[in-house]
Specification:
The protein is of the alpha/beta class and about 220 residues long. The protein is built from 8 helices and 5 strands, in the order E-H-E-H-H-E-H-H-E-H-H-E-H.
């Protein structure tokens, strides 16, 4: 497939939305409609309906395994409906979360086992991994403080988890980055937003030199 698949990961409050919005704008200025933004869970009408169930604030009694299976189901539909066709069409795909999120949030955070969640998702992704994953790292306390300060009216069911949950999620992300350093690149998300964006775009350019070619020395 001729396209490029870049996922963005990070703990809650890392600033993924702001970073991705600017990256998308800058790439669109260079490549126009070849740039495709999508998200998980979601990305197409079936997966978006699953997202509504997952993030409904009233579903506090949802079983952890049910949650993990719903994420995997949404991911599978997203891949079939959006990601694979986009790659076949030569799109540059920017995906807000992918399989690493399930490993960190359900495998570690929900204590279901990172390997167990990986195996569930092997069936869903059928071997499809991003060529590059941008991991925006931030300490859990700072991330949650950002949520409280800037999007208190958009808090979802997972945002409401205890601090220890978010700390466990972050540790899992850091472990994944150490285990897959060629795919997952760590960016310090505690920096000013402009610095984070610059680091992200430079990292993308390092992997795909034709993207952000103004970053060339």
């Amino acid at each position: 497939m001729d396209g490029k698949f870049i996922s963005f990961e990070g703990p809650d409050g890392a600033g993924k939305t702001s970073v991705m919005r600017q990256v998308q704008a800058d790439l669109t200025a260079q490549f126009g409609d070849r740039v495709m933004y999508t998200r998980e869970p979601g990305g197409n009408h079936i997966a978006e309906e699953i997202r509504q169930v997952l993030f409904d604030g009233q579903n506090t009694d949802m079983d952890g395994r049910t949650e993990a299976l719903l994420f995997a189901a949404a991911r599978r539909q997203h891949i079939v409906s959006e990601i694979v066709p986009g790659l076949q069409a030569g799109k540059i795909i920017l995906c807000d979360r992918y399989v690493d999120s399930s490993i960190a949030y359900q495998g570690a955070g929900r204590q279901l086992g990172e390997e167990a969640i990986w195996q569930i998702n092997q069936f869903a992704i059928d071997g499809l991994l991003p060529q590059l994953t941008i991991y925006l790292d931030i300490e859990s306390e700072l991330g949650l403080n950002r949520i409280a300060a800037h999007r208190a009216n958009q808090v979802n069911r997972l945002d409401k988890e205890k601090l220890t949950f978010h700390q466990t999620v972050r540790k899992s992300y850091l472990r994944l980055q150490r285990e897959h350093p060629e795919r997952i690149k760590l960016i310090d998300a505690s920096q000013p937003l402009s610095d984070v964006i610059n680091d992200v775009e430079s990292t993308i350019h390092d992997r795909f030199p034709e993207l952000f070619n103004e970053k060339s020395d």
